[in-house]
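Mods, move this if it's the wrong board.
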Amino acid sequence: MLSKKVIIVLTTAIVIVVILGGLFIYPHLQPKTPNDGQNTQQQTPPPQVFKPVLSVNGYMYDGYWTRDTTTDLPNFVSDVRYSISNIGNTNAVNVSITVYIDGNIHSSDILPLISTSEDYYSSFSVSTVYDSSSNVIIQASCQDSTDSYTLSAGSKLPRYWTEDSNILKLYITPKEANVVSIKNQILAGFVLIRWIALRDWVGNSITYKDDSDIHGVDEFWQLSKETLQLRTGDCEDHAILLCSLLRADGWSANDVYVVLGKNNKNEYHAWVKVNLGILGWYNIEPQENGWNTLIGDFLSLSGYQAVCYFNDFQFHKIG
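Not the wrong board. C-alpha cells:
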C-alpha cells in the first residue's frame, strides 16, 4: 500500500501533466502578454487637415430677344447667375474665376478671399444666335481646390404670331446681307417705279407653299434670309420679305409695314401697306406681280380686316 507521501507526489504530478497537456493542445488558452502582437497603447489620431473646398453652381434666370447690330438677325441674350461656395474648413485665397463660352474665355477675375462657409454671387450675359445654343462653363480654383459648372444658353425663335411686339419687329431685316444683295440686284440700272419692281420680284421669284409642306408644322414664320434661300414661303413670308426689301431701299419706318388681318371666317392673311405720298396709303399683295397693281391688290385683299401692323421699329395693334 502506497504511503500518503507517495500518493501526494503522484497526484501533484498528474495535475501538472494535465495542465501542461491542455496548454499544448489548446495554445489559445495560454495567457496573453503585451508582446503577443496586440498594441495595448491607444493609437495617436492623424493631424487634422485644413483646406478650402470650392463648389460652383449656376442657372439661367432670365433672357430676352434682341437684334445683332452686325448681321441684323435675331439674337437671344441669356442672363446667367452663379455662386461659388467655400465648404472647406479654411479660407480660400486668390480664387480664380473663369467663364468659358463655347471653349473661348468670356471673362476672368481674381477674388482675394472666400471665407469658410461663405458664398460669392455674380452674374453675366451670353448672346446667342437664334435657334442655337452656347456651352457655358463656370470654373473656380484656388490653391487647393477646383470646381466647375456647365450649362446651356440660348433659345429658339418663336415661329408664329406672338403678342411680344419685340419679337415681331425682329422679322424685318433691312440690313441683312442677303436682303441687301437681292435688293441691289433687282434695282440695278434704271428702274421707273422701285417699289413695284421689288414687289414684282417677290411675287415672281418666291413660290407659295404652306408651312406644313415646307416645315411639317402648321405655322412657321421665316426670316427674309430663309425665304431667299428656300425661294418658297406662305403669305407672311412674302410680306416680311417685301417689307424688308422696301426698308432696305430707304423707305421710312413710318411709311411701310407688314399687316396681319383676318376675315369673317377667322382666316388670317398677311400683306404690306405703303404710304405713296399724295396717293395716300396703299395695300400691296406681295404674292402677285405688276399686273395686280392697284385694282388687283384691292380685290385680293377685300374682306380682310387688319389686326395689327409692324416693321423693324414699330408695332401697332388695331382695336
